[in-house]
Write a structure and sequence with these properties.
Keywords: Membrane, Transmembrane, Transmembrane helix
GO molecular function, one term: transmembrane transporter activity
Radius of gyration: 23 Å
Subcellular location: Cell membrane
Membrane topology: Multi-pass membrane protein
Shape: globular
Number of helices: 18
CATH topology of the largest domain: Growth Hormone, Chain: A
Number of domains: 2
Helix content: 55-70%
CATH architecture of the largest domain: Up-down Bundle
CATH class of the largest domain: Mainly Alpha
Distance between the termini: 39 Å
Protein name: MFS transporter
Number of strands: 3
């Protein structure tokens, strides 16, 4: 029957479909992913709501205007423009914006300490290398969250998981604000890193909910928000410290992250798990098997590890450079320097478009080479502020482009495994960041700023031989990923 649906079917359809593009219940997806309309009332009832045709027990599919080809049962809807090509625009833009903002605010909590390192050395009377342990602890905690928490997104509602992690960040932030000793602040940084894994839960949600034709751009948008959060965390921390002291940074952040948790639940619909009935231990084991089975994933992990290690090798000791000779910046100026990196956010969407068009390998090589080249002006930046700013812009631009290309490739793996894919990739990514931070602290203490630049360039160049040997291969395996692993 394709006529008017019965009243029971209408009641079953109206809620999920109306909420699909705004705030919806269980079967909704904010970016137009296919969803099952529960079979209620008449078995073959069909409803037409908001330009979409929904049949009981079938997937939501475009109907009428905006449909370039007849709907095929079981295929996800793809938004199309007048020419019949996939577009990245359409309903759900506000949900994507909220997701990007939540990612940024979540991950910012582990980066507030970077511009505060000189102040922390004075406040706790510790050497520079000891203070950098706060940054390293945040990155290690984040890697632990990625390894142990993010996989849960494949078997539980990702929106609920992310919002609860944001709520849990608040007490960790308050503990940081009240820290009587550096070790307490370091422990709280590790806890904040675990809670900040909410950002990658949301990245996996975005990838799973986006049609393949626009996935690179959608993920690039969310990653742009995450990048902005990392960079603006430094600006925010520096400005608040200059006005109210470093402890006020964490108190204010606790209020903001709590508000964002409620905003996330209000705007994003609940997400039915990609896999049901999974056991946590089997899920973690399945994550390891996934890493062993997917060569593209392993290769992209190497690229991500090296790129973020290089990035962290620059940013972690940069606060010591800027507060010392010849710059003598205060905390506010050190934080404001991070604005130079905001230009890097602009590379996310172009890199996503290149990857969507089949040029992910070329994009990766270009952006990694750009990161290597950025350390030439960064080396000159030890004495010239203009060169330091130019190098920071190039470094951030290269990192964001390489990151977006990596994620577009790994998220072509089966959607049921997206949280586990995120776990494997981002765990290696942030382990790289922790290695870069720890190594640069030691190198800066012994060899100064020139040694840091040599280290950063070497880390960025390390995966280029692997990239040069890469050949175009299928991104996904034909072996299915088990839903309950």
């Amino acid at each position: 029957m394709t006529g008017e649906p019965g009243p029971e079917a209408e009641a079953g359809a109206a809620g999920p479909v109306r909420r699909l593009f705004g705030c919806g219940p269980r079967w909704s997806a904010p970016w137009g992913r296919e969803e099952i309309f529960p079979a209620r009332g008449r078995a073959a009832a069909t409803a037409r709501i908001g330009g979409y045709e929904v049949a009981a027990g079938q997937r939501l599919r475009p109907a009428g205007r905006g449909l370039s080809t007849p709907p095929v049962a079981g295929e996800p809807p793809v938004p199309v423009g007048a020419a019949g090509t996939a577009t990245g625009t359409g309903p759900g833009g506000h949900a994507l914006a909220v997701t990007a903002a939540a990612c940024g605010l979540s991950v910012a909590s582990i980066y507030y300490a970077q511009p505060l390192l000189p102040e922390l050395t004075r406040s706790f009377h510790v050497p520079h290398a000891a203070a950098t342990a706060v940054v390293t602890a945040g990155q290690v905690g984040y890697a632990c969250g990625l390894a142990l928490v993010v996989p849960l997104g494949d078997i539980v509602d990702r929106v609920r998981l992310a919002s609860r992690l944001l709520v849990l960040a608040a007490p960790a932030l308050l503990l940081a604000a009240a820290a009587p000793a550096l070790w307490v602040l370091t422990v709280s940084a590790g806890l904040l890193g675990i809670a900040a894994s909410a950002s990658q839960v949301l990245v996996a949600l975005t990838a799973a909910a986006s049609p393949e034709q626009i996935r690179g751009r959608a993920v690039g948008t969310v990653m742009g928000g995450l990048t902005a959060g990392i960079l603006l965390a430094r600006v925010f921390a520096g400005a608040v410290t200059g006005l109210l002291g470093w402890r006020a940074v964490y108190v204010t952040a606790a209020v903001l992250v709590t508000g964002m948790a409620f905003a996330l639940r209000a705007v994003l619909p609940q997400q039915a798990p990609q896999a049901r009935g999974g056991h946590y231990a089997r899920l973690l084991a399945g994550t390891l098997r996934l890493a062993a089975a997917e060569p593209v994933l392993r290769r992209r992990c190497v690229y991500g590890f090296a790129a973020f290690a290089s990035f962290s090798a620059f940013w972690t000791p940069s606060a010591f450079l800027l507060t010392g000779d010849p710059y003598h910046f205060g905390e506010s100026a050190v934080g404001a320097f991070a604005l130079a990196g905001l230009v890097g956010v602009l590379s996310a969407r172009p890199a996503g478009r290149m990857a969507d068009r089949g040029h992910a390998r070329a994009a990766t090589g270009v952006f990694l080479a750009l990161m290597v080249a950025s350390f030439v002006p960064l080396a000159l930046g030890g004495r010239h502020l203009g060169a330091l700013i130019a190098g920071a812009v190039l470094l951030d631009f290269g990192l964001r482009g390489a990151q977006t290309a990596n994620q577009q490739q790994i998220y072509r793996l089966p959607r049921v495994a997206h949280s586990r894919v995120t776990t494997v990739y981002m765990t290696s990514y942030f382990i790289g960041g922790a290695v870069g931070s720890a190594a640069s602290a030691s190198v800066y203490a012994h060899f100064g700023w020139p040694g840091v630049c040599v280290l950063g360039a070497a880390l960025a160049a390390a995966p280029l031989p692997l990239w040069a040997a890469e050949r175009d291969r299928p991104t996904t395996r034909t072996t299915p990923v088990e839903d309950t692993e």
